[in-house]
Amino acid sequence: MHPDLLxxxxxxxxxxxxxxxxxxxxxxxxxxxxxxxxxxxRMLRYISKFLRQGxxxxxxxxxxxxxxxxxQISSLRARNKQREQxxxxxxxxxxxxxxxxxxxxxxxxxxxQVDWANKKAAEYLGIAFPRDHGQRFSHLIRQPDLxxxxxxxxxxxxxxxxxxxxxxxxxxSLEIRIIRYxxxxxxxxxxNITEIRRANQMRKDFIANASHELRTPITVIAGYLExxxxxxxxxxxxxxxxxxxxxxxxxxxxNLIEDLLKLSRLESDPPAKLDNEVDITELLSxxxxxxxxxxxxxxxxxxxxxxxxxxxxxxxxxxxxxxxxIVFNAVQYTPAGSEIHxxxxxxxxxxxxxxxxxxxxxxxxxxxxxxxxxxxVDKGRSREKGGTGLGLAIARHVMVQHDAExxxxxxxxxxxxxxxxxxxxxxxxxxxxxxxx
Length: 437
Ligand code: ADP
Fold this sequence. Notes:
Layout: H1 3-22, H2 25-52, H3 64-100, E1 104-108, E2 114-117, H4 119-125, H5 137-140, H6 144-154, E3 162-165, E4 173-181, E5 185-192, H7 194-232, H8 240-266, E6 276-279, H9 280-295, E7 301-306, E8 310-314, H10 316-332, E9 339-346, E10 350-356, H11 364-367, H12 379-384, H13 391-401, E11 405-411, E12 415-423, E13 427-429
Parallel strand pairs: 7-9
Antiparallel strand pairs: 1-2, 1-5, 3-4, 4-5, 6-8, 8-13, 9-10, 10-12, 11-12
Helix pairs in contact: 1-2, 2-3, 7-8, 8-13, 9-10, 10-13
Residues 325, 329-330, 333, 357, 359-362, 370, 375-378, 382, 387-393, 416 line the site of adenosine-5'-diphosphate.
């Protein structure tokens, strides 16, 4: 039997016996039970006092089951204390690591209130912790771009990062990323990309300046070579193949310089205004006419299917350059006499230009690289066709500039399909002309 029961039983029995000696067993038993109740109540008060006193007190020395309870509570407290210390140490280590990051970090709750921020957040964004704890991000930041991005990221729809100038220093460029985690909390990370942007700008300026400086001498050489070819046709017939080769190489260099200049214009900051309404059907018809001249004796068959009332808000010259590179590639990499389909149609998300050829195609391992500058699947063949290796890089840049996407699919031996997917917000649908009815 449990000692507690034995003790309480003995008290009741002794009280009963005392009651019998005094002439009333019932009163004796009641007195015994009362003593037991008072004793139990005292024990419970011990426990209550022990719980109130917190960790500092060692458990009271009580008999029986109460002793077991207080000891278990005590060891539970010791374990919790140890766990708390471990968690504190881990949190301190995490905070130290985040402070050591070269990026600004701001943690926000579901309502966009600042929960925590590291020191770099004060330096880059002016958000200081604990000063701004509980403040709404939208009250601390004034830049409209960043506030728009914050709203989009809060809805979980921001895929890309945002590049802005620091609100505290216009010389500092920041790349901001806002990530949603744990359902609706937000983590903002701002990296300082000033040096990377400066180096990139230097590279762009160098290419633009070098191309610009080379343009005039090459034009002069090309002009003189043409004159020399005409003048010496009869006098120096042996020299004609060499002069023709020189002219071809000069033309290649001219194309290369023009493409490099186009690329650097596309990369220029700030980007060109893109609010002209461009009639894509008219633009594609002009490209087709040029492609037919390029095809010349190769007699490619063009099969256009163009939706006429679908215009695009953008830049005519850039779109011409992008679309013509795609169509000219189809001409250059497709055997004579084959069909080239040019389609311009509406989709669920906007509109699409689709150019399909039946040429050799592009092997799968090269597809993701052909939009890189100077990347060519077959260098010799591209050069022989007068390619610069910049056509698809220009097309991709123009698409990015117009919030559009370039997608390439190809089946070696079957042909290639290049699609330009223009988003809905860039489309302008014109009214049908009366004669269309
Ligand atoms: P290039 O001036 O060499 O044509 P591009 O940037 O336009 O440069 O294209 C890059 C490379 O992609 C080409 O060299 C070629 O190997 C490949 N390519 C592009 N379009 C096609 C196509 N329609 N069919 C087959 N290969 C293609």
